[in-house]
Amino acid sequence: MAFNHKFLKDKSILPKTKPDARGQQKSMSIEPNMFNGECEGLTFKYFFGKGEGLYPAMKLGTLRAICDALEDALRNKEQSKLEFEITNSQNKPATIITVGRGEDLIPFLGLSGDVNGQKKAQKFMWYADKGVRLLRNGQPVPDLEVHERMTRTFVKEFDLFVRALEDVFNPREWNNNGGGGQSSRGSYQGGGQRQGGGSYQGGGSYQGGGNGGGNGGGSMAAATNEYDEMF
Question: What are the Gly residues biased-composition ranges (predicted)?
C-alpha cells in the first residue's frame, strides 16, 4: 500500500516556533525533496516571508544523524549544541541545522543561513498539541518535561518521514561513461532561492496554543559559529 503523504500535513509532531503575542506558531515542514520525478532525500522547510525561506535537503544518513543528536540531547540534561552544515549548491551559502539544548535546557532544532543576502535564523521546539495539557496527580507538568516528551515523540515517530521518502525514492541515474547528470533537475539551495526545474510548496502553517518556553529568533551570520549570540 502506498504511503499516505497527507500525514506529512499533520503538525502534531513537527517542531514549532515560540508562540507570539497572540499565541500563534509556525511549523517547520519536513517532506520529500522532489524534482522532475527524482528524489534522494528529505528537506526541512521554513519560510520567513514570501520568497524568503531556508530549505536544506538531506539524504537518509544525515537525517538519522540529526535524530541521533536529538536523542543525545534528551539523554544529557545540559546546555549543548551540534551543528550540521548543509551545502546543496556550490553557488549558494550553506544552511546550518543546529540541534541541542539552550540555556533553558529545552531541546531545540534551529535553521540559519543567508536568505536573499540577509542573515536569517529560526529556532524550533516541540510543544503539546493545541488544547492538550499534561497533568501529574492533578498538577501541571513542568514546561521542560512537556518539551522533552514531545521531542521524544518526534524521535520515535521519525520513521513516518522515512516511509514517505521510501515511497517516492528515485535517485538520479549515472551514465556508464564515468559521468553523471541530473537531467535538468533542480535542487534546493542552502537558503532563500531555488534554481532549476520542478516546483515547491512552501511554508509552515500557523496554529495557536502550545506551552510557553524557549527563546525567540533573531539574525546571525550564515555558516558561522555565532548561533549562541543569535539566541
Answer: 177-219
